[in-house]
Design brief:
heterodimer; A: 167 residues; alpha+beta; 7-stranded antiparallel beta sheet; 3-stranded antiparallel beta sheet; 3 helices; 28% helix; 32% strand; B: 123 residues; alpha/beta; 5 helices
């Protein structure tokens, strides 16, 4: 993954939070590490396919997810329920949708979002890609967005290697 | 006059309905896919504006718009979607959608669409 390809996703996350949630974000430096966690997270995952391929994972600690989705609907949420799952899925859908139009000259489609909840998990990347993870700080809590992406697609089969495994 | 909110995401319907209520629109009905929306709209109703998602199971928003227009249902439809490419916007307008609102949006964006299609809501 070319490092500059992370920029449309960072911009999309920032725009989505500012525009929908009136929430300013502070982004940290992208890191290139395996996507594994041992913390309770809610993760929205969505696939990109077409002339570019990738996976976007929105990783929210439970407290951040409650605050973010609560702000989306103007309610105070105290526990993880279907609203949280639905909200995180919609959020990653909007982030990926907003990002894909920033790749000029590409025709990119989105998969339906999937939301995973767990404490121990590993996100498998697409073949020949690595995860770039960007941390964000906000008044609603800290969170991260991880992206693996390739604009030069060698074959359709490569897109099928992505999966989420839980432990 | 009613506003019909069509989205498979319950949370997105809540967000849109919340924005509508802040703008003084309280007569709101909802559907979770294009098929449900079509079934509501082909019958006589007070629905005067439809806010329609694009990507939904069972029947997509664009399929629903095509079906409505082929059935001569003329209610204004605003697509509310992440599909922001120019080609998608053109496809929607050619299919019979009246306007387009791209996610992410804020309440002011919805207000602009309301003022265009529901003049009585102005002010």
């Amino acid at each position: 993954m070319k490092a500059e390809n992370i920029n449309p996703f960072i911009l999309s996350v920032t725009e989505t939070f500012e525009h929908m949630l009136d929430c300013r974000l502070e982004s940290g430096a992208p890191t290139c590490v395996p996507e594994e966690s041992h913390q309770p997270d809610i993760i929205g995952v969505i696939g990109l396919s077409g002339t570019a391929q990738g996976i976007v994972a929105l990783k929210l600690p439970v407290s951040t997810a409650l605050a973010v989705v609560g702000k989306m609907i103007g309610a105070e949420l105290r526990s993880v329920d279907t609203s949280i799952i639905d909200g995180v899925g919609e959020l990653v859908n909007i982030i990926a949708g907003n990002a894909k139009v920033k790749f000029a000259g590409h025709s990119i489609s989105l998969s339906l979002p999937t939301v995973v909840r767990g404490s121990i998990y590993k996100l498998n990347n697409l073949s020949n890609t690595v995860w770039l993870t960007v941390p964000f700080k906000s008044e609603l809590g800290d969170f991260a967005v991880a992206v693996c992406f390739k604009a030069e697609v060698a074959s359709k089969e490569e897109a099928t290697h992505a999966s989420v495994s839980r432990g | 006059m009613q506003v019909l909110v069509v989205d498979d995401s319950q949370i997105m319907r809540k967000i849109i309905m919340g924005a509508l209520k802040k703008l003084g629109v309280n007569d709101i009905v909802e559907a979770s896919n294009g098929q449900e929306a079509v079934e509501m709209l082909v019958k006589p109703s007070d629905i005067g504006l439809v806010l329609m998602d694009w990507n939904m199971p069972t029947m997509t928003g664009i399929e629903a718009v095509k079906k409505l227009r082929s059935d001569r249902v003329t209610v204004p439809v605003v697509m509310v979607t992440t599909e922001a490419e120019k080609e998608k916007v053109m496809e929607a307008i050619k299919s019979g959608a009246n306007d387009y609102l791209i996610k992410p949006f804020n309440p002011k964006d919805i207000q602009g669409k309301l003022e265009k299609f529901l003049p009585a809501q102005k002010g």
